[in-house]
Amino acid sequence: MSPRFFDGPLIGIKGLRSILMKYIALLFLFCSEIADASFPGTGIGLTLGAPSGFSGRTSLSENESLGFGAGWSIVQNHHFEFFGDYLWNRPDAFEINGEKFDFFFGGGLVSRTNSGKGNELVFGPRLPVGTSYQFTKPDLELFAVFAVNIGVVPSADVFLDLHLGARFYVF
């Protein structure tokens, strides 16, 4: 029997909230320093899906961005997840009824509780793909993302994410 990293609640909701707020604050500080002002900038928002939570994205250039998020699932095994992605963007990749949509794909890292063998805390790579629609007034993005996540440490696990959300660009 292998050692288990997670035997039940890792931290309470207050501890989780504190960690999440620190994580988001650090990401915004980092992203505001590297964002190119000629592109949309840094957006923050909410996602619904598996899991639901917070989402952010910052532009590095017209064709590159960083995506990040944290969320929890109350439907499945009550897991908490956070991730960071490097994304390649294809602006105006396709059109529906005269409206232009962006396409993006990339790679990143994910961490998830209550996963793997015996409800462990697992880490591994993530492969997201998605589409978005950008409004200019207000500076709002609607998006859909599908990601394949592969937990590799400390044990193997494959899980899927599907997010629908909105981000308001603040920087």
Report on the structure:
The protein is mainly β and about 170 residues long. It is built from 1 helix and 8 strands. An 8-stranded antiparallel barrel has the order 1-2-3-4-5-6-7-8. Strand 5 and strand 6 form a beta hairpin. About 30% of the residues are buried. The N terminus is likely disordered.
List the strand order in the largest sheet: 1-2-3-4-5-6-7-8
Structural class, from helix and strand content?
mainly beta
Q: Strand-and-helix sequence, N→C? A: HEEEEEEEE
Largest sheet: 8 strands, antiparallel, barrel
Low-confidence stretches: 1-10, 31-38
**Percentage of helical residues?**
10-25%
Task: Give the end-to-end Cα distance, rounded to a whole number of Å.
Answer: 49 Å
Quaternary state of this entry equals: single chain
Determine the number of helices (DSSP H or I, runs of at least 4 residues). 1
Strand content: over 45%
The gyration radius over C-alpha positions equals 17 Å
The gross shape turns out to be elongated
